[in-house]
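Known limitations

Structure tokens in this collection are predictions and should be treated as such. Users comparing against experimental data should check residue numbering before alignment. To illustrate the layout, the record for Elongation factor Ts, mitochondrial is reproduced below. The input appears on top and the generated tokens appear beneath it.
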Amino acid sequence: MLRFSVLLRRSNLSGCRLWFSTGEPNKEVNTKQVLMELRRKTGYPLITCRQALQASGYNVEKAKEHLLQLAKEKGWNTMQMDGGVLKEGLISVVTNKNNGLIVEVNCQTDFVAKTKEFQSLVKDAAQTLLDVYSTQQPSKIDLNPPELLKLVVSGKKQTIEDTVAITIGKLKEKIEIRRASLLSVPTNSILAVYIHPSVLISKTRPGSTLGSYGAMVSLSPTDENTGKSSIKMAGRDIAQHIVGMNPSCIGTCLKPTPNKSVTDSTPDDDVINPPEMLSPDESSHELLKQPFLLDSSISVAHWLNYHQLNVNDFIRFQVGEKTKSAEK
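Generated tokens:
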């Protein structure tokens, strides 16, 4: 007579439906080997993996589905709870030819922000938003987080909302996509970005898309012969300045009019130190008037003039910073 056993989820999964097992595993199944395989593939505790295997007749794929459903249900419950202010997390910046997307994803502790699961979520969310919202029209858009959650993750069959719920269920901590913005530039402009590395990232490499600060800047050359590669290199320096000095706007500055009457000056001197340009102002929140981060003896306006560039727009994010919408 066939014996059937009922596996009831532990107290931390109470309120969920019952799962049924067909009893003993197939004699050909190496239970210890299957248990370790599921543990390695999912990262769940051994006791949770053992319960999932028992509930699925020691079928690894079914056990993975079981664990996924558990995490999703627990994550949904956590998402409905008031988790307080989420001040930890990461910024991600991703780009394609003419579009840049910056997103902030928050959690409650830096321990969770260090995990591969959380970092994978941040990357997936950023790439999905870039794929969906990229446009050929120059624009600057603040995206609406509740709408973003309904999007299907690029290359996967689940929504961003489901991915967040599953990650919450696995990491046992509230997570939310706080904000995201898109910056699109015309074909005659260059989009440059800078990500400030975070100590939460175990392996930070050049070109990393994750950090604790991020900035995107749209630039255009004043000289049509300026190469795009040199603009991008200069643009990265400006983006780094924006991260470090936190300007609130581009601002205005007197246009340079090189003094040709000075006989002992060279053309380069006139470009670097145009007589009518304002001196750097350390207290200014205007980008053009600030001392340039990499050379505080000159203003950003001086530096841009030397490199024959104009700044059209920029976006800067910092994890956990106060925003205008949050202050209202």
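For this record: The first strand starts at residue 5 and ends at 7. The CA atoms of residues 27 and 293 lie 68 Å apart. Please report discrepancies through the issue tracker.
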